[in-house]
Amino acid sequence: KKGNVKINGEINETGGTLPSDSIHVGALISVIKDLNDNGNIPAKHLKDGVLKIKGNSEVTLPEGNYLLKGIDIKGNAKVIFDGKVNLLIEEEGRITLEGNPKINYRGNADNLVILTESYKDIKMRGNVKWDGILYAPKANIKIEGNVRAKAHIMGKNADISGNVRIKKP
Q1: Which of 8, 25, 83, 119 might form a disulfide with 167, Cβ 3.0–4.6 angstroms?
Q2: Does residue 1 surpass a pLDDT of 80?
Q3: Distance of CA 158 to the CA centre of its chain
Q4: What pTM value is reported for the model?
Protein backbone atom coordinates (compact mmCIF):
# COMPACT_ATOMS: atom_id res chain seq x y z
CA LYS A 1 0.00 0.00 0.00
CA LYS A 2 1.27 3.43 -0.95
CA GLY A 3 -0.35 6.83 -0.48
CA ASN A 4 -3.63 7.48 1.30
CA VAL A 5 -5.01 3.94 1.03
CA LYS A 6 -7.81 2.86 3.37
CA ILE A 7 -9.04 -0.70 3.53
CA ASN A 8 -11.87 -1.70 5.85
CA GLY A 9 -11.93 -5.45 6.44
CA GLU A 10 -9.55 -8.35 6.73
CA ILE A 11 -6.22 -8.14 4.91
CA ASN A 12 -4.02 -11.17 4.43
CA GLU A 13 -0.56 -10.14 3.32
CA THR A 14 1.16 -13.38 4.25
CA GLY A 15 0.42 -15.23 1.05
CA GLY A 16 0.40 -18.98 1.06
CA THR A 17 -1.60 -21.53 -0.82
CA LEU A 18 -5.31 -21.64 -1.44
CA PRO A 19 -7.37 -24.07 0.59
CA SER A 20 -8.24 -27.34 -1.11
CA ASP A 21 -11.88 -26.28 -1.40
CA SER A 22 -11.05 -23.11 -3.37
CA ILE A 23 -13.03 -22.26 -6.50
CA HIS A 24 -12.00 -24.15 -9.64
CA VAL A 25 -12.67 -21.49 -12.29
CA GLY A 26 -11.64 -23.75 -15.20
CA ALA A 27 -14.35 -26.25 -14.29
CA LEU A 28 -16.96 -23.48 -14.12
CA ILE A 29 -15.86 -22.18 -17.52
CA SER A 30 -16.26 -25.63 -19.10
CA VAL A 31 -19.76 -25.92 -17.66
CA ILE A 32 -20.97 -22.62 -19.13
CA LYS A 33 -18.94 -22.69 -22.37
CA ASP A 34 -22.03 -23.56 -24.42
CA LEU A 35 -24.69 -22.49 -21.92
CA ASN A 36 -23.89 -18.86 -21.13
CA ASP A 37 -25.91 -15.68 -21.31
CA ASN A 38 -23.59 -13.72 -23.64
CA GLY A 39 -26.54 -13.16 -25.98
CA ASN A 40 -27.81 -10.59 -23.47
CA ILE A 41 -24.78 -8.35 -24.06
CA PRO A 42 -25.45 -5.70 -26.73
CA ALA A 43 -23.34 -6.66 -29.79
CA LYS A 44 -21.55 -3.31 -29.88
CA HIS A 45 -20.17 -4.02 -26.38
CA LEU A 46 -18.91 -7.57 -27.05
CA LYS A 47 -15.84 -7.47 -29.32
CA ASP A 48 -14.09 -10.80 -29.94
CA GLY A 49 -15.40 -12.09 -26.63
CA VAL A 50 -14.23 -9.02 -24.65
CA LEU A 51 -16.79 -6.90 -22.79
CA LYS A 52 -15.87 -3.38 -24.01
CA ILE A 53 -17.75 -0.40 -22.67
CA LYS A 54 -16.35 3.10 -23.07
CA GLY A 55 -17.22 6.77 -23.23
CA ASN A 56 -20.57 7.70 -21.73
CA SER A 57 -22.24 4.36 -22.50
CA GLU A 58 -24.64 2.82 -20.01
CA VAL A 59 -25.25 -0.93 -20.15
CA THR A 60 -27.56 -3.09 -18.04
CA LEU A 61 -26.90 -6.83 -17.93
CA PRO A 62 -29.61 -9.15 -16.64
CA GLU A 63 -28.98 -11.95 -14.19
CA GLY A 64 -26.87 -14.73 -15.66
CA ASN A 65 -23.51 -16.32 -16.33
CA TYR A 66 -21.29 -14.63 -18.90
CA LEU A 67 -18.15 -16.16 -20.42
CA LEU A 68 -15.68 -13.51 -21.56
CA LYS A 69 -12.20 -13.25 -23.01
CA GLY A 70 -11.67 -10.04 -21.05
CA ILE A 71 -13.19 -6.88 -19.59
CA ASP A 72 -12.28 -3.39 -20.82
CA ILE A 73 -14.37 -0.62 -19.25
CA LYS A 74 -13.18 2.98 -19.68
CA GLY A 75 -14.27 6.59 -19.64
CA ASN A 76 -17.54 7.48 -17.97
CA ALA A 77 -19.19 4.14 -18.69
CA LYS A 78 -21.85 2.85 -16.33
CA VAL A 79 -22.63 -0.85 -15.93
CA ILE A 80 -25.70 -1.96 -14.01
CA PHE A 81 -26.51 -5.55 -13.07
CA ASP A 82 -30.15 -6.57 -12.81
CA GLY A 83 -29.81 -9.55 -10.48
CA LYS A 84 -26.85 -11.81 -9.74
CA VAL A 85 -24.24 -11.76 -12.52
CA ASN A 86 -21.19 -14.00 -12.79
CA LEU A 87 -18.49 -12.85 -15.21
CA LEU A 88 -16.08 -15.70 -15.94
CA ILE A 89 -12.89 -14.63 -17.69
CA GLU A 90 -10.95 -17.16 -19.74
CA GLU A 91 -7.31 -17.99 -19.05
CA GLU A 92 -5.71 -15.41 -21.36
CA GLY A 93 -8.18 -12.63 -20.49
CA ARG A 94 -7.32 -9.14 -19.31
CA ILE A 95 -9.36 -6.99 -16.95
CA THR A 96 -8.93 -3.22 -17.27
CA LEU A 97 -11.10 -0.61 -15.55
CA GLU A 98 -9.94 2.96 -16.03
CA GLY A 99 -11.16 6.50 -16.16
CA ASN A 100 -14.40 7.26 -14.35
CA PRO A 101 -16.54 4.15 -14.80
CA LYS A 102 -19.21 3.02 -12.36
CA ILE A 103 -19.63 -0.75 -12.24
CA ASN A 104 -22.46 -2.02 -10.03
CA TYR A 105 -21.71 1.09 -7.98
CA ARG A 106 -23.99 1.37 -4.95
CA GLY A 107 -25.51 -1.96 -5.97
CA ASN A 108 -25.45 -5.17 -3.99
CA ALA A 109 -21.82 -6.35 -4.08
CA ASP A 110 -23.02 -9.97 -4.18
CA ASN A 111 -24.70 -9.23 -7.53
CA LEU A 112 -21.33 -8.98 -9.30
CA VAL A 113 -18.89 -11.86 -9.14
CA ILE A 114 -15.83 -11.76 -11.42
CA LEU A 115 -13.88 -15.01 -11.59
CA THR A 116 -10.74 -15.48 -13.64
CA GLU A 117 -7.97 -17.99 -13.99
CA SER A 118 -5.86 -15.59 -16.04
CA TYR A 119 -2.27 -14.83 -15.11
CA LYS A 120 -2.53 -11.38 -16.75
CA ASP A 121 -2.43 -8.29 -14.57
CA ILE A 122 -5.73 -6.74 -13.52
CA LYS A 123 -5.70 -2.93 -13.64
CA MET A 124 -8.01 -0.42 -11.98
CA ARG A 125 -6.90 3.17 -12.53
CA GLY A 126 -8.42 6.58 -12.07
CA ASN A 127 -11.78 7.25 -10.45
CA VAL A 128 -13.20 3.75 -10.82
CA LYS A 129 -16.22 3.05 -8.62
CA TRP A 130 -17.37 -0.54 -8.29
CA ASP A 131 -19.02 -2.95 -5.89
CA GLY A 132 -18.51 -6.68 -6.23
CA ILE A 133 -16.38 -9.73 -5.71
CA LEU A 134 -13.15 -10.35 -7.63
CA TYR A 135 -11.57 -13.81 -7.49
CA ALA A 136 -8.29 -13.90 -9.41
CA PRO A 137 -5.91 -16.27 -7.60
CA LYS A 138 -3.28 -16.30 -10.37
CA ALA A 139 -3.27 -12.59 -11.23
CA ASN A 140 -1.48 -9.52 -9.91
CA ILE A 141 -3.97 -6.76 -9.13
CA LYS A 142 -2.92 -3.13 -9.53
CA ILE A 143 -5.28 -0.51 -8.08
CA GLU A 144 -4.26 3.15 -8.31
CA GLY A 145 -5.77 6.59 -8.20
CA ASN A 146 -9.08 7.35 -6.51
CA VAL A 147 -10.70 3.92 -6.79
CA ARG A 148 -13.73 3.40 -4.53
CA ALA A 149 -15.09 -0.09 -3.90
CA LYS A 150 -17.27 -2.17 -1.63
CA ALA A 151 -15.60 -5.43 -2.47
CA HIS A 152 -13.97 -8.71 -1.65
CA ILE A 153 -10.75 -8.93 -3.68
CA MET A 154 -8.57 -12.01 -3.92
CA GLY A 155 -5.49 -12.17 -6.13
CA LYS A 156 -1.96 -13.50 -6.23
CA ASN A 157 -0.57 -10.06 -5.31
CA ALA A 158 -2.07 -6.60 -4.91
CA ASP A 159 -0.33 -3.28 -5.49
CA ILE A 160 -2.58 -0.50 -4.17
CA SER A 161 -1.58 3.16 -4.35
CA GLY A 162 -3.07 6.62 -4.33
CA ASN A 163 -6.29 7.67 -2.60
CA VAL A 164 -7.94 4.23 -2.79
CA ARG A 165 -10.87 3.27 -0.51
CA ILE A 166 -11.96 -0.36 -0.27
CA LYS A 167 -14.69 -1.35 2.17
CA LYS A 168 -16.03 -4.73 3.11
CA PRO A 169 -19.52 -5.17 1.64
Answers
A1: 8
A2: no
A3: 14
A4: 0.88
